[in-house]
Every structure is written in C-alpha cells, then in structure tokens.
Amino acid sequence: MKNLLTDISGVRVGHADDTKLASGVTAVLFDTPVVAAMDVRGGGPGTRDSTLLDPVNTVERIDALALSGGSAFGIEAGGGVQAWLAEQRRGFAIGDAVIPIVPGAVVFDLLNGGDKQWGRFAPYRDLGYAAAAAAGDDFALGSTGAGLGATTANLKGGVGSASAATPSGVRVAALAVVNAVGSVTVGDGPWFWAAPFESGDEYGGRGLPPSFTPEMLAMRLKGGATANAGENTTLVIVITDAVLTKPQARRLAIIAQTGFARAIYPVHAPLDGDIVFAAATGAKRIDPLIGLTELGMIAANTVARAIARGVYEAKALPFPNALPAWKDRFDR
Known about the structure:
about 20% helix
C-alpha cells in the first residue's frame, strides 16, 4: 500500500492547477460506478449534485467526484470532469443518453494572493477536464490540485491522503483538501492534533507536546476577529473496497467525520463547509453492524492522518505575506 487513496483498486486521482491563479482542481475517477453518500457538518458548504447522494434518491452509483478551489465558481469543475467522462461514453444510461454522475464540492481560496481576474468565465471547467484526463494511480500531495491555494489559521494547507486496512483485510483510504478556519497544529509548535494516529513518520513524527497550556488551547481562526463565513472548508473523500448500501455509505461518512475533530481545532464551525464523501467499490463483504463500526473507526483515524499530511506536505504560496509551510517552520 502506498498510503494513498488509490490503494483502493479501481480508483484514480488527477490534479490540474494554475500557479498564477493559485487554485486548482482534484478529480477522483472510478473505473466502474460506485455506491456513494455524503455527510455535511460545516456551516457554509458549496456542493454540486449533492442531493443525488441522499439515500432516498434514485441514483445509486456515481462515476467520479470533483473537488475544487474557487468557491462557487469552482462548482463548474464537475462539468469538466463530466465532459471527459462523456467522451468515454461513461455514465448513467437513460435510453440512448449517457449522463456521467459527478458530484463535487469546493473550497474558498479567492483571497490567497493569486490572480482571480479571469474575465467572463472562470477556468475551473477546463481545469476539471484536465484533472480527469490526468488521473492515475500515483498523485502528488500538498500544494497541488484543489489544495494549491488552501490555507489554515496559521499554516499553508493542501491535499493529503492516507490508507489503512481492517484486521480482516478490508481497505479504506482518504483524500483531504485542507482549507480550515482552524488549526491542524497545536499552538505555535510543530505538533499535529492528529499525532496519536500517525503511521510511522508520515507527518514528521513529532508526537504531542509534553503538556497542554491554556495558550495552546486558545482559539485560532483564519483571519482572526475578521474571519468570515464561506472562506474556509475541509473536503474529504473516503473510499473502501467493502460492499455497502447507500445508507451504509452515509453512515460511514458520518463516522469518518470524527477524524476532522481529531485533526482540526476548532472544527465544523459556521465558518467552515466541512464535507465527507464516502464511496464503496463493493469488492469485500462485511458485517453490517460490527463490521461497519470497525470500518468507520479506522476510516476516522485515516481521515485525521490525511488532514495532517495535507498540511505537512504543503508548500508556501509565492506571494507577499503568504502563510508559511510546516516544513519551512519546523523541518530544519
């Protein structure tokens, strides 16, 4: 296992971004359609086709997921991914019509110093197409794709990923785009809130501080007292090779949200748009109660790890007053 989302067979990930724009798109493609659902906990989400994922609605499976910067402008990224899939004649068949099903979500990165004066039409549709065309088994972490322009309260954010398996061999993996209003690290130090769940030294191996002071537990928000709703969000995709129904996928997404609370402080604020998509490729059967509980437990830990890796692997943007990267401050 490569500790990536693509450790789940049949899953491919692609990025496309623009350094001048300081924004981009990440596309997750499935070789065959998968059962999927979602859970929203943040107060300011921005989504595409999210109602399709409600367990009571008709469409059971999806073809891809699109994550994008650009706030509401970035919702068009899903159209680019959809266009690429349509060229492959992949999608939900209705008579002779084939409609690729591509839900998605966005993060706000419009104030990060990049040039967002794109003219009449935003570039996210084209970036979505390019991300889909670039999808493969290996992909970069940190400041790339939808995480190129991401930030947190005190450090540069980015794309992270992690994977794990249950004792019986059922796999689960996560991809995160970390653009949180809160902090992923403790106080002003190098320690990640997700330290207890770290595998090896995947985000520096610093552990937790010897003790916690009131200053460490004080609230840090991106923008401080001027923090605004809609300017933040952490997006996560959790995928398993288990056999799940749509309601079970929704339950997996709900349990996996626990990983946010293990990695970001504070989290699920009215200033965030935190979302978990959960998908199942359906290769391995699990017990619907104990098995799903165990899978959710491990998924939550994996989400926490992916969030920490997104900050650990990030690089600072090349603009005046840009937030530093974790490695610039602590990996010396």
